[in-house]
Design a protein that fits this description.
Blueprint: H1 5-31, E1 41-42, E2 56-58, E3 64-66, E4 74-80, H2 87-101, E5 109-115, H3 123-132, E6 140-143, H4 147-156, E7 161-165, E8 170-173, E9 176-180, E10 186-191, H5 197-208
Parallel strand pairs: 4-5, 5-6
Antiparallel strand pairs: 1-10, 2-3, 4-9, 7-8, 9-10
């Protein structure tokens, strides 16, 4: 059966519209701080040494540190807004679940939570964040820096973030958990909520067992 040109054009337009809608959904899903779904995770073929990114960060003790300080251990990293009350608490909860599930090689593991907020002059804000989320483990580091340093890191990890309305704690950001090797290379990046605790634990233990 022959399809006339008019029918072919209509089919192509429909396909084009569907592709545009799919692309828009992927972008929204990746960047939405409220997204409950996930599209993908991937390994990156071109991996930069995350710990070689320059710039000073302030930790929960108010001390300046460089990312190079964290070399030598496997890092589980994530990003949060201080006052986000939607997806950020869930991300911290999932990291705490990982922490409590992993029972071996804890001395070869560390959790790095990077804040989108620049509170270098108010380290007490970091302590309030730690207290609110009941983070008491010595293997955890909560870090803040200026926008330039933060952007250098988030751009490498393909993370987007934006303050919509700080007064009402309205933010949008990529939900992200990453596994960084002891050499600073990105081992795995999870965007959204697709990660499974059991698989994550297995991947982490495989890495720490090699150290």
């Amino acid at each position: 059966m022959k399809i006339n040109k008019k029918g072919q054009l209509l089919s192509l337009r429909i396909i084009g519209i569907l592709l545009l809608l799919l692309s828009a959904y992927i972008v929204w899903d990746n960047n939405s701080g409220d997204s409950s779904k996930t599209f993908w995770s991937f390994r990156r073929s071109s991996q930069k040494d995350i710990y070689s990114i320059q710039g000073n960060w302030i930790n929960q003790s108010g001390k300046e540190v460089r990312l190079n300080k964290f070399r030598g251990k496997v890092s589980i990293i994530s990003f949060n807004f201080l006052e986000c009350n939607k997806s950020c608490p869930q991300l911290v909860h999932d990291l705490k679940l990982l922490d409590s599930t992993i029972e071996t090689n804890k001395d070869k593991l560390q959790f790095l939570v990077f804040l989108f907020d620049d509170v270098r002059n108010s380290p007490i804000k970091i302590k309030e964040f730690i207290k609110r989320h009941e983070i008491n483990n010595k293997y955890w580091h909560v870090l803040t820096s200026n926008k330039e340093n933060l952007n250098n890191l988030t751009e490498e990890l393909l993370i987007k973030y934006e303050v919509i309305d700080k007064e009402i704690s309205s933010y949008i950001h990529t939900n992200y958990i990453g596994i960084i090797g002891s050499d600073g290379k990105i081992i795995k990046s999870y965007y959204g909520w697709q990660y499974e605790t059991t698989k994550l634990v297995t991947e982490i233990l495989n890495l720490t067992n090699k150290l």
